[in-house]
Amino acid sequence: MPNLIINKEDLEFSKFGDGEQFGAERAEVGAKVGANKLGYGVVRLPPGKRAWPYHAHHVIEEAFFILAGHGTLRHADEHHPAREGGFICAPPDPTQPHQIINTSDESLTYIAISTNESTDICLYPDSDKFGVWHTRSKDRSDPKNFHVFSRKSNGVDYWDGESDE
After folding, report:
1. CA gap 31, 3 in Å, rounded
2. What is the pLDDT of residues 31-43, one digit of tens each?
3. Which residues on neighbouring strands pair with residue 13, listed in sequence order?
4. What domains are there in the chain, each with its CATH number?
5. What DSSP character marks residue 35?
6. Would you state the torsion angle of the CA atoms of residues 84, 87, 93, 97, taken in this order, to the nearest 10 degrees?
7. Which residues neighbour 78 within 8 Å (Cβ) at sequence distance 6 or greater?
8. Which comes out higher in pLDDT, residue 13 or 142?
């Protein structure tokens, strides 16, 4: 049985993302305390960074709570100040893409919460991409899992490549 409580001083952060715009540290919390229907963790963004690309979900709902620092919420092509103590909602709606950007000179730390859905479709407006996934196990290499990312402009017709034979 997992621990029901993890204290902030016991969080184990790992780095992800690399590049000029992207890069963060994330500490998994939800799975470590036994959560089933919610995924959550703590994200630390260095100055000038984003954790994830600007995106919108069709299925997953996300929420964020700013623990420390300040930055900008990019939401539906508008920019809003986000600061310590702020709650942010990102409902499952393809017309409401979102992204948290650390526009300050100090670290920005927030809790990221999402519904734990096995299937989702995610849109990435800045790069004309989409992602589709269905996850049956937490092991990303499990052949029962399905993940694909592509550009919307590369789409084909439903009947493309099908034969009448």
Report:
1. 10
2. 999 999 999 999 9
3. 27
4. 8-117 (2.60.120.10)
5. -
6. -10
7. none
8. 13
